[in-house]
């Protein structure tokens, strides 16, 4: 085997299955890589060396016993620290949960273990997934492997950075407003937000329940598809889980063909506020798709311009309620209990000390939007906008198979640049949010570097709910054509760490 | 607590009309909690029936208990409600340590059942219709124990201990529309409503509805309006009243208290109040500095409930005979008066009597034992009839022993006493205590001879045809055998020995 | 839309149990004002006849059978408790209704 850490997940799995390399060797190579570079990148909050090696040993033992292994057995993975892992620290990037070892595995965690995936550790994230830069982590920011002084996107910056830094070939993210796709775009990796309800949320620490969706992160579209099939599927523990077969995303990724597909370009995403280099790469992608045999149509979705405001009412409203459980009574941080204070006072002191400014801001914003007298104007209106956005999508998908847009308006910005300007920060999710509100599927694939800063640009592909396979068809076609053109995957242009 | 001179009840009712609203919470008897698979066994050790979901752990999610929904629909149908074609759960947001998520999963503006009524019968047989606003599904909270300070009360406690076994147990909240027009019978209506609701819940088999165990809890909202007025007054909300008697007393006390405040030109404060069993009064709860704002919104972790009409109709078709109608039927079958039926209801004896009849006892015997001897014992011990350590089958066996002549009534009471004392089945008690009626001729012979010898004059009277005189001899024999003799057989033997044959 | 005053922020902080410092009240008042100004736009297109969407997918009637599943052990339940006593969570005095 050449360089174990640079293999794709598909290649690694095949090598392990054929006995060319052991799962333990693969795990050790990645643990060594983490040891070597993570001090600089800070993608991980917790590295579970013992757990990873034990899981790898078990895969090797099963292979030795002649057991048939799954398509990802022995492949290492970086898990966003928002999914519970039994006995392994889980913080959601918050001081509130420092040192918490959950007594249960998330359904996604359990499925990964059952698939023989080797979980290397838990990755950094914006506190409770609130943010677009991973700067809101209580444990310090993560650097973008393309330029460590820049943000790796967020909230799942740790997972995306781990992929770009070759610390893991696979990672898991969660996407509430773009937290898988936007980090994917700014790190030159692939990120998919599956259809809402297709990956179980049981054990996913909730930010905004009606928007949160776990999904795969990888360096290739096929790897993302393999991971997608491992984690998706009905879960009776999640009432919002879809009880239907998972679309054949691996087959679609292998098909990688857009001939005859109708591709809609969302008219509303572009223009003012969009970086020139981002738009340039996007337009080239449109032409590429046309040259590959897709039919390009311009589509207008007028209510999409209301998606951002609707999102910043719905997500904070739900989070204000979801995060109420952090009250210092049953688990997590407790501050100020001096024997004289009341439970109410201790709760308020703990929440003041345990939550960072963005979390407090959103809790208060959500509390405001739900309070009597304001509910109809804010939360109520936002839910109506959601209906209008869904109607725009329905109309569009009556005409085209997929929609495309830039994933983000700009490339990775410098750490600290937007830290105390929430409105500027929120713009990072402008193009990704509509799919969260409507619940459909979307992907970001690398489509080149912006000429002005040599940083990765992402192409967003959006498909109707339950048609996730279309993302993979289009994404894999774009990926193959661009790799051909460049002569190598985009990530190989990233500077060495 | 300010001391207040209550207005006499009759005087209060002469000037004001009471308006009541009753909110009853019923804990369902499902095997598992409303949103998770934890068991609901009462009395389990603390925090042993708790999982990530009912502990509100980060990442956990709720899944609705189908029997919880079915029970809610059945209760709604029994209360003559409309059943929603589509409804949702909502989060009621407020912080309280006994509530793990710091929101209660409940229903807000889309209850599963609404617009119904329950007809209740008062002591004298008058039927009063109580209109039902809604019945909705929600979940219970954990239990706190207050440590330090006075007698486990929350005030002055140093700290509290929390057990979440009860957290998440399904509750159905049943809310009446304002009850107007009950006049001086308002407290009686309140009591009769809660009693009837309890019977109904039990008949549906959805809960044992034991108020003493908190399985059914009632909030009494009450206001007064001057006679002739058409606008409701300000109400007080007396929380968690936990017995039928207390419901009536709380309403009565609040009528007198409101009247006193209003008569002095005062204003009723809208507040929660607490009822005190010991002296029948209510006191003010904590007055909050700011109004509660529960920020209800649709629960995003649960999907809407849209009960199919066929299912609802099927459930309607399977409803058991409703308690009031069943009582009417039983009353005529048993040939008893309305008052007797009412006392059987109040004693909680109806199902026990029926079960005893099912076990083979004649109806009058079953009634006699449960409403006589056993009701007296339950009353003495301060427990509900059903809690006495005796089963309908055991009562039926005692009744059979009497019918077979093996026990007299007096002996039967001793057998029951033995069963209640844990001495075993009726037959075992008879054997151990040696209570069987003595009808063995040889055993009786000596006692009869002694009686004849002691009262020769009586023997002569009998020989001369005055058969009724035999009573004195029978009495003597019974005394000598400490009541265990079979009196009829004793009489026969006496006549035999004296060689007479009474007509 | 009316601006959010410092007092309103204090009220929101009380409702959401955040013991905000004085300087935070001012800072958040300013930021929340900006955000609310920007998001209030939603009412522009939220017409009377548009139904609200609370769930992205039109699922209904997802229920489970009333069958007992294993609970956690009391040790697991209490493992993360900041304080415990007699197999219960120990919490500071509750100022409640009594
Ligand atoms: Mg309630
Ligand atoms: Zn549970």
TrEMBL record, chain C:
Its EC number is 6.3.5.-. The keyword ATP-binding applies. One of its GO terms (biological process) is glutaminyl-tRNAGln biosynthesis via transamidation. InterPro entries: Asp/Glu-ADT_sf_sub_c (IPR036113), GatC (IPR003837). GO terms for molecular function: ATP binding; glutaminyl-tRNA synthase (glutamine-hydrolyzing) activity. The keyword Cell cycle does not apply. It holds the Pfam family GatC. It catalyses: L-aspartyl-tRNA(Asn) + L-glutamine + ATP + H2O = L-asparaginyl-tRNA(Asn) + L-glutamate + ADP + phosphate + 2 H(+); L-glutamyl-tRNA(Gln) + L-glutamine + ATP + H2O = L-glutaminyl-tRNA(Gln) + L-glutamate + ADP + phosphate + H(+). Keywords: ATP-binding, Ligase, Nucleotide-binding, Protein biosynthesis. Signal peptide: none annotated. Belongs to the GatC family. Heterotrimer of A, B and C subunits. HAMAP family: GatC. Allows the formation of correctly charged Asn-tRNA(Asn) or Gln-tRNA(Gln) through the transamidation of misacylated Asp-tRNA(Asn) or Glu-tRNA(Gln) in organisms which lack either or both of asparaginyl-tRNA or glutaminyl-tRNA synthetases. The reaction takes place in the presence of glutamine and ATP through an activated phospho-Asp-tRNA(Asn) or phospho-Glu-tRNA(Gln). This is Aspartyl/glutamyl-tRNA(Asn/Gln) amidotransferase subunit C. The lineage of its organism: Bacteria, Bacillati, Actinomycetota, Actinomycetes, Kitasatosporales.
